[in-house]
Design goal:
Elements: H1 4-22, H2 34-39, H3 57-74, H4 102-121, H5 127-143, H6 157-174, H7 179-198, H8 224-238, H9 246-258, H10 289-301, H11 309-322
Helix pairs in contact: 1-4, 4-5, 4-6, 6-7, 6-8, 8-9, 8-10, 10-11
Length: 325
C-alpha cells in the first residue's frame, strides 16, 4: 500500500465499509457513558460542524458511480494479478517496510477484499461491475490461501485475513442462489479465522509488527484498530452462523477496551500502562479520529454498553469538524 491511489482506496473503502456496517447497528438509547458518570465531565460535548444542505439523491448516486468506475479502471488485468487490486509500482518516494513477497501478498489480498466489498455492497449491477466482482472473487479464492506472515517482524497478513472475512461474507450473500459456492466461501472464512487465531498476539488482539521476541506466536503490541477490524470481521462471520472461538473474542474486546480513554480516543497500540503515553498527539482525539470510528463500531457490534448513540454521534462530529468537511 505505498502508492497514493492505493492509500486512497484503502481509506475511502474503509470508510464506506464502516458506514455500511454502522447501518446494521442496533439503536440504543443515548444514556450517559460510564466515563462521564465516573469523572463528572461530559466527554461527548464536542465541536459540531455547521449544517450543510443535504445533497440530492442524484448527486449521491453520481458520486457512487464515479467511485465504482474508479475501481473498475484500477482492477488489475495482467498475469497472476488478474482480477486483483493494488500494486506498489508508484511509490512517489513514500516507501514503507514491506518484505517481499509476503507483505505485498498481504496488502494485495486486503485491498482486493475491500474493493470487492465495496462493489458488492453497492447496487450497481452493470455487466462490467458483475464481471469485476467475478474476476475479483476468482483471484481471492485462488490466492488467499497463500497469504502468510512475511517474516519474523512483519505481520501485515492479519489485515488480509480480517478484510477477507468481510469480503467472503459479502460474497456469501451475493451468491445466495449458489449453495455450492456458498459452502466454499464458508470454508474459506473458517480458514481465515484460523489464521487470525494463529497470529493473535500473546496479549490478545492483533498487531502488524513484532519487534520484541520474534516468536512463533507474535509478541507484538496489539493495535486498537487492527483488533477492531478483526472483531468487525468476526461479527460478519457470526451472522452467517460460523462459530468464533470465544477466547479470541473475549481477549480482543479486552484489548480494545484497555486502549480506550475516557473521551473515547484510543491508543495507537497497547504498550502497557507505563508506556502508552496517553497525551502524546497520536493518542489524543486528533490522532484517534479514524481509530475511534473502528473501535467504537467493533465494541458496539459486540454489545459493549459503553458505546451509546451519543458516543457514535460525538465521534462522527469530531471526524467532520476536525477535517473541515
Amino acid at each position: 500500500m505505498t502508492t497514493n491511489h492505493f492509500r486512497i482506496i484503502v481509506l475511502a473503502l474503509a470508510g464506506v465499509a464502516g458506514i455500511s456496517a454502522a447501518l446494521k447497528v442496533r439503536v440504543v438509547a443515548g444514556e450517559e457513558t460510564p466515563a462521564a458518570v465516573k469523572t463528572g465531565r461530559d466527554w461527548l460535548d464536542v465541536p459540531r460542524p455547521e449544517r450543510v444542505p443535504m445533497p440530492a439523491a442524484e448527486e449521491i448516486e453520481t458520486a457512487i458511480r464515479r467511485g465504482t468506475d474508479f475501481l473498475l479502471e484500477r482492477q488489475l488485468t495482467h498475469g497472476d494479478a488478474h482480477g486483483a487490486w493494488g500494486s506498489a509500482t508508484r511509490t512517489k518516494g513514500l516507501n514503507i517496510y514491506a518484505p517481499v513477497p509476503g507483505a505485498h501478498e498481504g496488502f494485495r489480498a486486503a485491498v482486493t477484499s475491500l474493493c470487492l466489498s465495496a462493489l458488492i455492497e453497492g447496487t450497481d449491477r452493470r455487466p462490467e461491475v458483475i464481471a469485476a466482482i467475478e474476476a475479483g472473487e476468482r483471484w481471492l479464492l485462488e490466492h488467499l490461501g497463500n497469504v502468510r506472515r512475511a517474516n519474523q517482524d512483519a505481520i501485515y497478513n492479519v489485515w488480509a485475513h480480517a478484510y477477507a472475512i468481510e469480503a467472503l461474507a459479502d460474497l456469501h450473500g451475493y451468491r445466495h442462489d449458489d449453495p455450492d459456492k456458498q459452502a466454499q466461501l464458508r470454508q474459506m472464512i473458517v480458514g481465515q479465522i484460523d489464521r487470525l487465531d494463529r497470529y493473535e498476539s500473546v496479549d490478545g488482539g492483533w498487531g502488524y509488527y513484532d519487534f520484541r521476541a520474534y516468536a512463533q506466536q507474535p509478541s507484538s503490541n496489539p493495535t486498537s484498530f487492527t483488533t477492531a477490524t478483526a472483531l468487525i470481521a468476526f461479527h460478519d462471520a457470526r451472522s452467517l452462523g460460523i462459530e468464533i472461538p470465544d477466547r479470541l473474542v473475549r481477549r480482543a474486546i479486552a484489548c480494545v477496551e484497555r486502549q480506550q480513554k475516557p473521551d473515547f480516543s484510543y491508543y495507537y497500540s497497547d504498550n502497557g500502562p507505563v508506556d502508552n503515553q496517553p497525551m502524546r498527539s497520536i493518542n489524543r482525539p486528533g490522532g484517534s479520529l479514524g481509530r475511534s470510528q473502528a473501535c467504537n463500531l467493533a465494541l458496539r457490534l459486540w454489545d459493549r454498553p459503553e458505546i451509546t448513540d451519543r458516543v457514535l454521534d460525538a465521534w462522527l462530529a469530531r471526524l467532520f469538524s476536525r477535517n473541515l468537511w
